[in-house]
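Interim report, section 4.2 (structural modelling).
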Amino acid sequence: MTELERELFEDQLISIAKGMDYPNTPNIAGSVMTRLRASMPPRFISRPLAWSLTIILILFSSLMLIPPARAAIIEFIQIGIVRIFPRSTETPIDVIQTTSPSSITPETATPSLPSSTLIPSLSRIAGKTTLADAQQKVDYSLLLPTYPPDLGPPDYVFVQDAEGIMTILVWLDPHQPEQVMMSLHFVPEGSWGIEKSKPRVIEETTVNGQRAIWAVGPYPLRLRNGDMDFTRLIEGNVLIWADGSITYRLETNQTLEEAIKIAESLEPIH
Amino acid sequence: MDEPTLIRHAANGDASAWEPLVLAHQEAVFRLAYLLLGDPDDAEDTAQETFLRAWNHLKRFDQTRPLRPWLLSIAANLARNRRRSAGRYLAALTRAFRNEPSPASVEEKSAQTMEANDLWNAVQSLNLPDQQIVYLRYFLELSVNETAEVLQIAEGTVKSRLSRALEKLRVIIQQEFPVFADKRERHEA
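Predicted structure of the assembly:
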């Protein structure tokens, strides 16, 4: 075959091959993409979006390490059954609120007090009892601070039914016996949720290695049970931590360091 | 997005970038598979497998090169393997019964289509490497350069292999398709 003959033959082949009756091309792309997506791990977001979200998450995590920023970002901080609302628009109060008011017996709470009354008369608090009797009534161990060494036993003990049996230990100021120096609340699991609104400062710390929250007052505390209110005992600060099923609230006018020392010195009653 | 951009995105795992590339090349891949296998179902399976394999090996693909020759190369290899498989003979028999044309349908076919079918039958008498090069160059109308890319051989080798394949094809046509040969000679005259 000469070069010319070959070229003519090639042209003829191309021309004839154009008349080839191919079957219609099936939807290969559809089948391929279906098989491809079925074999791929679930991926709900695109890669650029995933990167963006990762960066946002890193920034968010960094901000969460800064207490004021954290307080500004999140709606509440939960520790044990205590839920703190740093940005509440309501009057800045700490609230213990029942989740089922009808099940609470009125006599376990005190009547509502005027909002200006921050420190109520201890005689108006329901459930006054002795330490020994309180320990009989609750199914958890009551603990007493061994720090400061000269603290001694509580001056008042209250046991209140708040869906769980809550115990409140009260120490009076020896120099001002009409004033409460410190109170320690034992709030078992299942009790009313304690909701604290807008404390001035919230600081994260630890008690015996457990996460704890330090909320700085002064701000009024009110335990609310429907139309029954219970104001806080101290115009001071609160250290909150949880251990097992018990949430502890230590109200004190001491510093954070002192409060932690007190909290870490708790020991069962002998 | 142009093809290199789509390839880059797909190589980074973006399946949505792979879809338009499949759409762009599915016809060529399917047709080559059909020419080599002669069965539309086999051709479809081969074409799907081609695009899935290409996706899996996209990171190793030189993104500066055109995609189509690479896809056709994968398709040709897969079709060759499929022809060798044990089930191939049975599939061919099934196809022969299923596709046997009725006299009416033969009449309805255009003369050009009949001629193309004769040519296809003639090419099928060649050995597989020669078939591949004829299909790529004359049926899919790839350039010598693209054909070389698909077969991963030098352009000079493509030309020499084409020359030998054409000689064989001419002999086959003269011996087994005399009517087609007569037409060709009249055309040359």
